[in-house]
């Protein structure tokens, strides 16, 4: 298979005031892969995602997504139509029903759609993420944490995107809820041919569904590759993270799942 970088970051520098978050960061995300992005707290994973999405202007470097240059553009609308995002806090609009939440991107990008068609498309997305038909009429506050994540995912998939960005999607879920969400993500990624940029702290997620892992540290990508490649990289944080007790139990769980 010939690999094709659908996200290409070169020489990225981001900074807030005097605090430099990224310096000379390079990263490629290949079409059809799930790339897991890990790194210590505050290493700039969310900022990197926002830079790729064109939500903040870097101080230097370039970002290309699906062949379009993001850097220097004020509002990459065309790109926003082709990408779905689930932010860390999930942020559903609390005063809208679940169905109305999923309809928001459709309304924004296709205002000419009839209410009937928009509703049908949104209901389809809810079915895709495994939510029962009655869920659409509920308010986010009436859902469990896991259901809210699924609703957020349905909204991220509203525009039938090629690229999906997820910032810690399993944070706050119990282990079974998190494993169910991982499985859903993998199934949807394969069925819809998605490329996924996935920020996570969750080793189970990394081991269960990611094709490659990128480790952020010291303002750049320390290493990127398959799990085995990354685990072997000589760095203190990587050693603690991938060879600590939590990693051992995640590996054991994956082996049990594979039997
Ligand atoms: N809008 C902002 N203004 C000022 N500083 C910011 C802003 N956004 C992020 N930062 C800083 O940039 C650094 C990286 O933040 P980021 O949220 O990307 O970290 P992270 O790796 O995602 O962390 P975590 O794993 O804890 O979520 C942090 O020091 C943060 O305080």
Describe the structure.
The protein has 259 residues and is α/β, with parallel strands linked by helices. It folds into 2 domains: 1-75 and 164-243, P-loop containing nucleotide triphosphate hydrolases (Rossmann fold, 3-Layer(aba) Sandwich); 92-161, no CATH class. Helix content is 40%, strand content 25%. It has 10 helices and 10 strands. It has a 6-stranded mixed sheet with strand order 6-7-8-3-9-10, sandwiched between helices. Strands 2-1-4-5 form a 4-stranded antiparallel sheet, covered by helices on one side. Strand 9 (212-217) and strand 10 form a beta hairpin. The protein starts with a strand and ends with a helix. The mean pLDDT is 90. Adenosine-5'-triphosphate binds next to helix 1.
Number of helix segments?
A: 10
Q: Give the % helix.
A: 40-55%
Shape estimate: globular
What molecules are bound to this protein? adenosine-5'-triphosphate
Mean pLDDT across all amino acids: 90
CATH fold call of the largest domain:
Rossmann fold
- Main pleated sheet: 6 strands, mixed
Strands of the widest sheet, in order across it, are 6-7-8-3-9-10
Q: What is the domain tally?
A: 2
Q: Which value, in Å, is the CA radius of gyration?
A: 18 Å
Strand content: 15-25%
First-residue to last-residue Cα separation? 28 Å
What structural category characterises the helix and strand content?
alpha/beta
H/E element sequence: EEEHEEHEHHHEHEHEEHHH
- According to CATH, the homologous superfamily of the largest domain is P-loop containing nucleotide triphosphate hydrolases
């Amino acid at each position: 298979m010939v690999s094709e970088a659908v996200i290409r970051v070169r020489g990225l520098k981001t900074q807030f005031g005097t605090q430099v978050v990224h310096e000379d960061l390079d990263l490629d995300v290949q079409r059809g892969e799930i790339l897991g992005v890990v790194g210590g707290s505050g290493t700039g994973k969310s900022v990197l995602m926002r830079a790729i999405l064109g939500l903040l202007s870097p101080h230097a470097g370039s970002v290309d997504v699906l062949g379009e240059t993001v850097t220097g553009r004020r509002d990459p609308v065309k790109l926003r139509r082709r990408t779905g995002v689930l932010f860390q806090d999930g942020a559903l609009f609390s005063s809208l029903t679940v169905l109305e939440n999923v309809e928001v991107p459709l309304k924004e990008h296709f205002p000419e759609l009839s209410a009937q068609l928009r509703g049908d498309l949104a209901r389809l997305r809810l079915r895709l993420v495994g939510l029962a038909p009655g869920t659409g009429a509920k308010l986010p506050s009436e859902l469990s944490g896991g259901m809210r994540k699924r609703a957020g995912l349905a909204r991220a998939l509203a525009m039938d995107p090629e690229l999906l960005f997820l910032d810690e999607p399993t944070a706050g879920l119990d282990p079974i809820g998190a494993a169910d969400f991982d499985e859903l993500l993998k199934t949807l990624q394969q069925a819809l041919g998605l490329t996924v940029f996935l920020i996570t702290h969750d080793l189970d997620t990394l081991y269960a569904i990611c094709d490659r892992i990128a480790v952020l540290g010291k303002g750049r990508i320390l290493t990127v590759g398959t799990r085995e490649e990354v685990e072997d990289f000589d760095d203190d944080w990587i050693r603690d993270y991938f060879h600590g007790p939590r990693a051992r139990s995640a590996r054991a769980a994956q082996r049990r799942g594979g039997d």
